[in-house]
Amino acid sequence: xxxxxxxxxxxxxxxxxxxxxxxxxxxxxxxxxxxxxxxxxxxxxxxxxxxxxxxxxxxxxxxxxxxxxxxxxxxxxxxxxxxxxxxxxxxxxxxxxxxxxxxxxxxxxxxxxxxxxxxxxxxxxxxxxxxxxxxxxxxxxxxxxxxxxxxxxxxxxxxxxxxxxxxxxxxxxxxxxxxxxxxxxxxxxxxxxxxxxxxxxxxxxxxxxxxxxxxxxxxxxxxxxxxxxxxxxxxxxxxxxxxxxxxxxxxxxxxxxxxxxxxxx
Length: 265
Ligand SMILES: Nc1ncnc2c1ncn2[C@@H]1O[C@H](COP(=O)(O)OP(=O)(O)O)[C@@H](O)[C@H]1O
Ligand SMILES: [Mg+2]
Prior knowledge:
The structure is a single chain. By secondary structure, the protein is of the alpha/beta class. The chain has helices spanning about 40-50, 90-95, 110-115, 120-130, 150-160, 180-190, 205-210, 245-265; strands at about 5-10, 20-25, 30-35, 55-60, 75, 165-170, 195-200, 215-220, 220-225. It has a single domain (about 5-265), classed as Rossmann fold. The model is unreliable at about 235-240 and about 255-265 (pLDDT under 50). Adenosine-5'-diphosphate binds near residues 38, 43 and 44.
C-alpha cells in the first residue's frame, strides 16, 4: 500500500488557486524532497496532507485513510527558525512532548501542560529515539544551548516518539550550516529503513544526494525520480547549479513530457 496518494488536488485560500491538479505518491521507505519558489504552495500542500486544511477538489489518502483519520501516522518537524531559544526546556522534555501517552486522558491536564515526571518506560522510549538521532548524551541540556542542527535532530526524535509511518519536515535546515544539514539528511536517509520521509527544502545540492524523488511545486507539482534520472549538480567546471536553474530544468522536462504525452494520446 502507498503511504501517501494524492490525485487531482485543488486548493485555494481565496479566489486564486494555490494548488491545481496536483498528483503525488510516496511509497513505503521513500525519501521525497519538495522544492519550489516562495509562495509556490509547498507549506499549503503539507497542511493539506496533515489534515489542517481541506481540499476543494481531489483526494488525499494516507495508508488508505483520510488525513484527519491518519494523524497518528504522521510525524511533523517544524521549520528550524520557529523555536523559542529562551524557553527553559531540556532536550528530554522536548522529546517527551512527542510521546502519545502524554496526550491520553489518564494523564491530568496539569501533567499534560507540565510533563515533568516521567516513568521508566517513557524515559527508555525517549532515550532510544534520542540515540537514533545521536543526541542521547545531550538529554539533560537546555535546547537553547544546542546548535541549530542538534536542535533539529531533537525535534526529529520528538516526532519519532509516536512511531509515525510518514515523517514530514518543512524547511528543517534553514539557517543551519552545511555540515549540520548533511548530518540531518543522512539521518533522514537512515530513517527511511522504517518510515517514509517528505521534506520541503531549499538545500538542493544536499537534497539531490539523498532523495529518491524531487517534487517541484509551483501551483502544479512535477515529480522527478532521481533513481531513474539522476541530476548531477556539479558542472564540469565544478560550479554548483543554482536552485533556479534546476527548477527550470525540472519544469521544462516535465512540460516536454506533458507535450509528448499530449501528442501521443
Ligand atoms: N492562511 C493563508 N491565507 C491566505 N493566503 C495564504 C495563506 N497561507 C498562504 N497563503 C498564500 O498561498 C500561497 C502559497 O503559500 P505557501 O503554501 O506558504 O507557499 P510556500 O510554502 O511554497 O512558500 C502564497 O501566495 C501565500 O501568500
Ligand atoms: Mg513554506
